[in-house]
Design goal:
Low-confidence stretches: none
Strand order of the largest sheet: 2-1-5-4-3
Distance between the termini: 51 Å
Structural class: alpha+beta
Mean pLDDT: 89
Number of strands: 12
Largest sheet: 5 strands, antiparallel
Order of helices and strands: HHEEHHHEHHEEHHEEHEEHEEEHHHHH
Radius of gyration: 22 Å
Length: about 375
């Protein structure tokens, strides 16, 4: 078994993934990097608009042309191989799905699965792994890889590495969808942004505005969602402001550790319209540093496409909380004292206090009251 992926290689792959958000033509080369590191033979990525089925993104690597031409004839069979539409719909978006674990009968020696018999087996593919990138009212997207018989079934190394890549892959797909263009040269990025209906603001590590497109300038002038205070970009809600500051600092320091920070930060507009902020780091990779040298991140404002999750779940993702920290947070924001939290979780009072100190540090607050207020600001209004 190969050693875990090195931090240097992981960083290179993540940098390439974020470059793909700007130039989707880079996806084949980026998937090839993943294939080489994880011993996959082929890779494919797709993003389809709903409900019309328009193909927003389609790229592959590793397939021989005759087989790639045949792949389009196996749509229903591919769905059936994974167990059918209901099984596919039940698979978590943020967890790699391995065919040999989800539906092992499809790849068994005595299988009757048509896709495996007619497409996979002739090419020597013995297993597949797939990751859902988006599944909402506007689109559905995935990235998947095939494993050749020469290296065996997909193992834990491949699953664990893809888990590390999932938040970056999902962020790149979401931002690519917002840009709604095939490719952008770094030299013309800012002028292209001005043509978009999506508000986009480029900022430095302190959240100082470096550039805003026309849609964002209009939004800032209204003080809606984002405001300018001494040229610093400031979200209207406490939670969004804290989460955005954490994400932009992380983008400046080390984008490979960004994870879910700055992806889908929920925020309310002046009329309580639910929106989301997405942070794209700009300082690394081959393409992004040429966009705006002084900027460390681009902030995209999009409609909130999926129902808002419980505040504790959102906070845990945006501030990189551990499971234990999240449990303490849930108790504290629901009104429990430190002693009551300790009793409810069957841990010591000193342990609760230790978790609180870490929560204060991660969320940049200093008191329990501030923690509760910040958590409350993530409770977006429910719209019918």
């Amino acid at each position: 078994m190969r050693d875990p992926i090195s931090l240097a290689v992981l960083s290179d792959i993540i940098g390439a993934i974020y470059d793909c958000a700007i130039d989707p033509a880079l996806w084949p080369a980026t998937m090839d990097m993943i294939c080489r590191e994880l011993d996959f033979r082929t890779g494919a990525i797709g993003l389809i608009a709903l409900p019309d089925g328009e193909q927003l993104l389609s790229a592959t690597t590793g397939f021989e042309a005759p087989w790639l031409d045949r792949a389009s004839f196996f749509g229903p069979e591919l769905v059936a191989q994974w167990g059918g539409p209901e099984v596919l719909a039940s698979l978590p978006v943020e967890e790699p799905a391995v065919l040999s674990r989800v539906n092992p009968a499809a790849i068994a020696p005595d299988t009757s699965d048509r896709f495996h018999i007619e497409f996979n087996r002739p090419q020597g593919f013995v297993d597949s792994i797939s990751v859902g990138l988006v599944r909402d009212a506007r689109s559905i997207g995935f990235i998947g890889f095939n494993r050749h018989e020469s290296v065996g079934l997909v193992g834990e190394r491949e699953v664990e590495t893809l888990r590390l890549l999932i938040p970056h892959l999902r962020r790149a797909a979401a931002i690519s969808r917002l840009l709604d263009i095939k490719t952008i040269a770094a030299a013309t990025f800012q002028s292209v942004l001005d043509t978009l209906a999506t508000p986009v603001v480029l900022v430095d590590a302190r959240l100082q505005k470096i550039h805003a497109n026309r849609a964002a300038e209009d939004m800032l002038a209204r003080g809606d969602l984002l405001q300018l205070k001494n040229n610093l970009v400031t979200p209207r809600t406490k939670g969004a402001a804290a989460a955005l500051a954490v994400a932009v600092r992380q983008a400046a320091d080390d984008e490979s550790a960004l994870g879910r920070k700055g992806f889908g930060i929920p925020i309310r507009g002046l009329r309580d319209e639910p929106r989301a902020l997405h942070v794209l780091p700009l300082q690394h990779g081959r393409l992004r540093p040429g966009i705006a040298p002084a900027a460390v991140a681009a902030i995209f404002v999009s409609p909130l496409q999926t129902p808002a999750s419980p505040p504790a779940e959102i906070i845990a993702a945006l501030f990189d909380l551990t499971a234990a920290e999240r449990r303490v947070l849930e108790k504290i924001v629901s009104g429990h004292t430190v002693t009551e939290t300790a009793e409810a979780l069957d841990i010591g009072v000193s342990t609760v206090k230790t978790h609180l100190v870490r929560l204060f540090d991660k969320m940049n607050v200093h008191r329990q009251a501030d923690l509760v207020a910040l958590a409350a600001s993530f409770a977006l209004p429910v719209r019918s």
